[in-house]
Amino acid sequence: LVNVDSILRSVIQTLHPLAAARHVNLRLEGMEEDSEVLGDQDQLTQVFTNLVENAIKYGPENGEVSICITAHSNEPTLRGPAVRIDIADQGEGIAAHHIPRLTERFYRVDSHRSREMGGTGLGLAIVKHILNRHRGRLRIESHAGNGSCFSVILPYN
Ligand code: ATP
Ligand code: MG
Q1: Pick from 95, 94, 119: nearest CA to 105
Q2: Which residues pair with 29 in a beta bridge?
Q3: Could you give phi then psi for residue 9, rounded to 5 degrees?
Q4: Which residue has the higher pLDDT, 103 or 33?
Q5: What is the pLDDT of residues 95-132, one digit of tens each?
Q6: By the 8 A CB rule, do 139 and 78 touch?
Q7: What is the whole-number distance in angstroms between the Cα of residue 82 and the centre of ligand 2?
Q8: What percent of the chain has pLDDT over 90?
Q9: Residue 135 and residue 7: Cα distance in Å, rounded?
Q10: Ligand 1 and 124: CB distance under 6 A
Q11: Is the ipTM here above 0.90?
Q12: Which GO terms describe its cellular component (predicted)?
């Protein structure tokens, strides 16, 4: 049993230097006591590290990344109570035709930002793999020019 809340706090600490370098404000919202899920602490830490790192890298300098927990989310896709974590940035967004392919290994949107930022294109493939093992889901909502929101949905405890 792991506490999503405390995982997110530690991820924010770990990524603080990267956020500070880009003058990005990390905002954590919706903290609740009972955001516990059945899962592996290190693997879930990896999931949120990859997603928040992307939000910082692909969002604008001086921007804001919001991380919002909803503890008793009713998610039809999971058929039962769930914890949902939304990670939203103010970046250039992702065109619709790229979205289904983002979790493929080595897939990168060929924007100049992806190229200049470095990385291998494995982050989201790892996220998907770990979430599958937790019976979780990744939902991606984005509109080119309008920021992105990556939602992690995990079965509640
Ligand atoms: P790595 O995570 O291995 O360092 P990466 O960030 O390029 O490299 P992924 O995390 O798998 O790889 O992301 C794949 C691609 O999806 C990125 O290259 C980028 O084009 C796009 N992407 C991911 N997150 C965002 C985001 N928040 N906003 C815009 N584009 C994104
Ligand atoms: Mg990445």
Answers
A1: 119
A2: 68
A3: -60, -40
A4: 103
A5: 999 999 999 999 999 876 777 778 889 999 999 999 99
A6: no
A7: 25
A8: 76
A9: 18
A10: yes
A11: yes
A12: plasma membrane
